[in-house]
User: Fold this.
Amino acid sequence: MKATDKQIGGSHYKDMTIQPVEYIHSNKLSFLEGNIVKYITRHRTKGGRADVEKALHYCELLLQLEYGVEEEAEPIVIVVPTAKRRGRPPGSKNKRKVK
Assistant:
């Protein structure tokens, strides 16, 4: 069995079309870049918000170590649009009049 065919500690990578480790290795990414790819790829199936925060932290480390950015970055605000709902809001007392 190839090492890329097995996963230790879960299955969050096995169902992916391209496993992060294969992408990282093929593109010769650094440790920091590889961790960004790893954490952002798995956040929906494993760590959720914590994995996104880890990816952001590795982005900050990359900025500091590769580009000399010393100050802490401004907080990133992500605005997620809410789904538009049709009709009256739940609990609305305005009922449709029937003629």
Notes: The chain has a mean pLDDT of 82. Residues 18-67 form one domain.
